[in-house]
Amino acid sequence: MSRATRGARVRRGTLLTLLAMTAVVTAGLVTVLGFGEVLLSSAADGETPVSISRWLSLPLLVIGAVAVPAVGHELALARREEVGLARLRGMHGRRLVTFLLAEPFVAIVLGGIVGLVLGLAGTWLTTRFWLEEAGVAISAWTSGAAVVVVLVATAGVALGMAAASREPLSDQVSIATRAKPATAAALFGSVVVLAAAGIAVYRAGRETDPDLVVLAGPALVGLAAGQLTVWLLRGVARVATARTTGSALPAFLATRRVGRGADRGTALRLLVAAGAVGTLAATGAAGISGWTDDNARLTAGAPTRVDLDELNAREAVTLTEELDPNGRWLTAAVYVDDDNPLRRRAFVDTERYVGIIGDFYSGTPADDVVAGAEGLAIDSPDPLVGDTVEVVADGIPYRLDNASAVFGGDAPPLDGAVEVTIDYVATDGTPGTSILVLRARADGGTVSAGEPLENCADGCVVRQASVETGIVFQGDFFVVGDTRFNEASGSRSTQLRTLRFGDTDLTQVPWRVVEIDSLRKDERGSVQPDEGGGLLVRTAIDGTVRADLGGVDRTLPLLVTAGLDFGETGPVVLGPGGDDNAAEVVSTLPGLPFVEGSGMLADLPSVLYGSGPTIPGADVMVLAADDTPASVIARLREAGGTVRTLEEIETADRLATGAVTARVYAVLAGCCLSVALLAFIASAARQRAAYRTDVAALRVVGVPPGQIRSAGVGELALLAGIAVVAGTGAGLIASRLLLDALPLATVPEFGVPLQAASSVLPAIGTGLLLALVVVVVAGRGRRLDLDRTRPAILRDEQPPVVGHRGRVAAR
């Protein structure tokens, strides 16, 4: 035990690295899995639970599966002489590996325990900041992840040590590590990684759910790019070494060390792979964060949104006018959601909206909505006031005395008639209908009809008037006449002398024909002013004809999203009450408030003119500016409003779309970088002793310290340059080709498209970060310390030679 303790103390640096690496991998997996469990269980009743794919953690597993054997190899190299001595004593194969695994196994188990604790803490912290409530998930997945990491890490270390234990004894007692040709297994593994990276890129471009290869793609692409970089680096270094022979000594030394340095390739590959994952995570997090912010602004409509479930659209407009007469803080809005994009519509009081919103949508897909909303409001006629409705008409089909000759049998005489129907809406949204039947007189004279109006004392808006001809009376009942009646009567038109709605004669108001219902589609009816006054309603020759006379011609200007197709009918917008309104598109934008990526926006007061009651599916709200007084917000609460800030809406959107996954993935990328950094530190620490030996040997042959120092700087510059190029390239490839395929967020059906991979800055930043790591970590081992690199250390580091009589002597 004392020998094992002393050995562990001597190799504490590598063992602590292994412990830390195991802890980081375990903590990252437990954090991701635990966060997903808490998120899944936090969904309220009736809500669709948001889940995070457990296999998003595959990049960390891939990098850990490469890094842990590398550390095991470093640990075996640190025990080279001990391994050689054990082999001389007859210890081989599994027995030797078991002997070597005692120390790292303890470190791995401790690392697994520490990682589990850190992972639970990480789950609590991430849920504390990114979810509504903090939580910790201890499940079969989180506990199993820690066990799997311990087992896989142990197997990986055993694999690395097995490779080192099979080295020739001459290599194990050598004071320098020489570059050796790659083994067949190593080459096969490199080819497998390259092939897997290609498959991941190929499958990521398909319109299918990502599989395990695609989810592991960022790490695979990074490892492949790192492997290609290592091959390129060694090839360039060897060519440069040959070119610098006989020239400047520092350049020769730098390139020779890069070309012959053993085991540096694995650490550099891991750095590049972790950099690729980090670039993808940073690009995705930044893009999804901006996309979520845009969605939240489109959903909120203003810095503060107050939902009014108990009020209708008209009441919301009235409330804003009462609480904010000057239009400085409040504006009413209505949003109607629907599965049909042509029925997704939003309405705002644009005269107030423009001044209140300001630059709220700056930089979002609805950036130009303020400028476009300025022209949406249109003038509306004053409502009509009155108590009765009356119609006077001429030219109604005369009495048909010979009905029996037309219809056969003993048909009694029939009287022709015209039915006038008027649909109207009170200013409070209450609908009404007046049906006036004009029965022809025997002498063909003028006839009239009238009835009282309901709820029009304060004003009403006439939505539509229809005139239906071809009606005949049979006894006390009227029926739709048939073709023979129309042919026999020869009637072609009906003259409405007056159509008085309260105090207003509607025959003097311009109307437009909405629909002509005729059996003969090639003949159109018409409604036009009569020379003698009133309106002349012309009908088709045969069949029953209904001439629908639409309300006053008010075409509503619309803002619509790109790709909205109205077809041959042209733009039509349904009001908050479900009424059809003719419209015209004045501008097309990528996104609009409330409807987001698909729908339309119109002026609320304009569309409320003549609109029926607000439909139950409409969301009625009041939008408030940033500087709205607290007292006004309190009044809105008293009116039954639910206040929602932009931050609350953004949090809800992030959970609803799963965009919080991008943040968890960033944590995972941080763990990947930590593992790669630990592997690089372990590799650099072992190379530090070899570098001191090389410097001492150069000093023996008289190389000046200045040239040795220049060679070290040149080596660092070459490694840093290749790290920048490889890190940037791998990051760009991963983010451009794989990011869109990863399930980091779910775009709603009608949401604004997510475009995250559009910037090269994260890739360049990652490349510079990797170069900094190389310079800082590897640079520590390149500092020229004259005391520690004196030539005498060559004698101290020579392995002992056992004489034929058992005496130990120096070589």
Automatic annotation (TrEMBL):
Organism: Nocardioides bigeumensis
Keyword Nucleus included in the entry's annotation: no
Domain of life: Bacteria
Location(s), subcellular: Cell membrane
Principal location listed in the UniProt entry: membrane
InterPro entries: ABC3_permease_C
Name of the featured protein: ABC3 transporter permease C-terminal domain-containing protein
Pfam families: FtsX
Residue ranges annotated for the ABC3 transporter permease C-terminal domain, each copy included: 667-778
Protein keywords: Cell membrane, Membrane, Transmembrane, Transmembrane helix
Protein's membrane topology: Multi-pass membrane protein
Segments passing through the bilayer: 12-35, 55-76, 96-118, 138-161, 182-202, 214-233, 266-291, 664-682, 716-739, 759-778
